[in-house]
Amino acid sequence: MKHKLILLTFLIAVCVMKQANAQLALEQNKTYTGAQANELLYKAIYQMDQGSPEVIKKTIRNINNLLKDPRLKGKVQVELVVFSAGTEALRKDSEYEEAIRDLILKGVIVAQCLNTLEERKIDKSELYDFLAYVPTGNGELLIRAGEGWTIIKP
Fold first, then answer.
1. Would residue 139 count as lying in a domain?
2. Which residues contact 48 (CB under 8 A, 6 or more apart)?
3. For the residues 26-48, what does the mean pLDDT come to?
C-alpha cells in the first residue's frame, strides 16, 4: 500500500510538472518577437520561374515584405532572378511594370535569364527596358548560393 501511495504521489507530481512546463512554453512562445538581425548584411535571391498571377504577385509581395522588416533596415541585399514561365511577368504588356520598377527603385536587382529568351524565342525588345540579364537563371542561383545568398522560392 505504501508503494502505491508513493507511485501515485510521483505520478501526480509528474502531471503537475508537465502542466507547468506546458504553461511556461506557451508563455515563452507568446513573448517571442522574432530572431534578431545581428549580421551586418543579409543577402536573398528570389527565384521566379512560374507565370501564374498568384505566384508573381506573391513573389513581389514577399520581396516588399522583406524590405519592410524593421530588423533588416539597411542590412539586406535582394535580387530577383526570373526565368522559364516567370518571364511573362516582365513582358511589356504585363500588368506588373509598376511593381517591378518599384522593386528596382528600392534597390532590388531584377535579372532575366537569357537562356529562357533563347529557348522561348523572346526578344529583349518584348520585355521592360530596365531589366538586368544573366546567362542562366540556374547559374545565377548557384553562384549566389556559393556566395552565401539565401535562395527563396515563393
1. yes
2. 55, 56, 59, 80, 81, 82, 83, 86, 89, 154
3. 95
d(CA 112, CA 133): 5
Residue range 73-111, pLDDT digits in tens: 999 999 999 999 999 999 999 999 999 999 999 999 999
Cα torsion at 131, 136, 138, 139 (round to 10°)? -110
Three cell numbers written together for 109: 536587382
How many structural domains comprise the chain? 1
Calculated CA dihedral for residues 78, 139, 110, 103, nearest 10 degrees? -30
Distance CA(134)–CA(108), nearest Å, equals 15
